[in-house]
Structures are given as C-alpha cells and as structure tokens.
Write a structure and sequence with these properties.
- The chain is α/β, with parallel strands linked by helices and 270 residues long.
- It has ten helices and seven strands.
- The protein has helices spanning 2-35, 60-63, 66-74, 93-107, 132-146, 163-177, 195-198, 205-210, 221-232, 240-248; strands at 50-55, 78-83, 114-116, 150-154, 186-190, 215-218, 254-259.
- The termini are far apart.
C-alpha cells in the first residue's frame, strides 16, 4: 500500500512539473510586462526588450543565467552581456575570454553585444574587494550608452557568496538608491537559494513556482542542452565538480528574480 502511495505522489509531482512548463511561457510575458511597467492591454515584442546581463567572470553567464538568456533570446530580445573581469585568477585570461565568446554564441548572444572588462582594480579574486564606485561607474556608463530597459545581475548573496558577485549587487543597488538609473530601466537580482533547493535539478521547479518573484525563467530539455553546451565551452573550468553542477544545479533549469527597489537608501562607498 505504501509503495502505491509513494508512486502516486511521485507521478503527481512529475505531472505538476510538466504543467509548470506548459504554463510558463504566457506567464513569462506577463511578468516581463509587469517589471517593465508595460500596460496589460499593450502587446510586448521581443525588440521592446533591451536587456543587460551583468556578471563577474567568464562562465557566470551559463552557470547562473542560462535559463534567462535562452528565454529572452527565444523572444528575440536584444540581450547584451557585461562581464567585469577576464577570469584571470589562474593566469588564463585570454583563454577564458575566448571561452566566454564561444559560450555566448551557443546561448545566442553575438560577439558584438559582449563587453569584457579588463581592469587592474577588478581582478578575478574571491579575496579582492572591488570598489563599489568603480563598478557602479562601469555599469551605469554601459546602461546609458546602450539605453537598456532591463538589467539583471546577482543578489546580495551572489548565488555562491563570491565577493565579486556581491560587489556587483552592491554597485547596482547604489545606482538604484542614488537615482542614477534611467526611469525606464528596471533592475532585477537573481535569487540565491539554499543548498538543498540548489542541487535537486529540475525537481526544484515547483518550489520556485510557488515562491513569489518578479520574474521567473524556466527552460525545458532543449534549453537545458543549450545551457550544457555553453558550459562545455569553458574547457579550462571543467573540473569534476562542474559536471555535478551541470547535472544537479537548479540554475541550469530555472532563474527567479526580485526587483531591486529604486529609492532612498544609504550605502557606504569604498
């Protein structure tokens, strides 16, 4: 009897996940309208969206943001990437730069929309404390130069707690609180989840579906293959635990974002 109950629960859970995939596309468009303050009666087209993904290192784009990039590219949005370092921690900067370009080509971002920053004060180093004012300056210059209406980056925990990731969030939060972001540009941070949810692969989808979020991007098997192929472009980083990450990380299947509020907020500058 217990076996039948367990089987029924598992089947119900898998059917629930299938239903989430089916419902995701129309809810994605509604969420995009909401975060971009587009009237519900107005049709939103892909070229209405000019999105900037801000990352710290080559491979961040596919390790953490692949579902978002894949979905936005499918909608024919203008997706750009700003990577704030070459990933030169092990003196592999030129190789990792090329790996990033290859990865973005797989995900659908052309080289002309990729900017890689190589600044001595922004090293790829988990112990380095990036200047918030410098990072803010680089990001806001890029926003204004390209008139983006959506910026997506890490939250305060940076998914992996990497100091470079959290520095980007502090910088974007500073821009939001100091009124330097154009009025038509929305700021979104990628939600960090705990280890249990992080490493149960697509089985985590119902949890993300039930949790309130400003934007949710989910990919199926075809999108996952693209995300995996993008990860494989980063050959210099494919240590054994990266294969486990590719298999078990929910960030290969789903991204959830919260809006970064734009209002008065005190943030210490360094």
């Amino acid at each position: 009897m217990i076996v039948y109950v367990v089987v029924a629960i598992v089947l119900y859970y898998l059917i629930w996940i299938k239903c989430i995939y089916c419902r995701h596309r129309p809810t994605l468009v509604k969420s995009l309208k909401r975060v971009m303050n587009v009237l519900a009666s107005r049709e939103i087209k892909g070229d209405d969206i000019s999105a900037l993904i801000v990352t710290a290192h080559p491979d961040d784009e596919c390790m953490f943001f692949a579902p978002t990039i894949v979905r936005l590219v499918e909608l024919k949005a203008n997706v750009h990437l700003l990577c704030l370092s070459e990933g030169n921690y092990y003196n592999q900067g030129p190789q990792r730069r090329q790996e990033l370009l290859n990865s973005c080509a797989v995900l659908g971002i052309p080289e002309s929309r990729i900017t890689i920053v190589d600044h001595k004060k922004l090293p790829d180093d988990p112990k380095a404390e990036w200047s918030i004012s410098l990072v803010s300056s680089v990001i806001v210059h890029h926003i204004r130069a390209h008139s983006f209406n959506m910026v997506l980056t890490f939250d305060e925990s940076g998914v992996s707690s990497h100091a470079n990731h959290t520095a980007i969030h502090k910088a974007v939060s500073h821009l939001a609180s100091s009124g330097q972001v154009p009025n038509d540009c929305c700021l979104l941070s990628l939600v960090t989840v705990g280890p249990l949810r992080k490493y149960i692969s697509f089985l985590e989808l119902p949890f993300s579906w039930l949790q309130p979020s400003s934007l949710r991007c989910i990919i199926g098997s075809q999108g996952y293959r693209r995300a995996k192929d993008a990860m494989f472009c980063h050959r210099s980083q494919l240590l054994w635990f990266r294969y486990l990450y590719i298999t078990f990380s929910r960030y290969m299947f789903v991204n959830t974002f919260q809006t970064i509020p734009q209002g008065p907020k005190n943030l210490k500058m360094y």
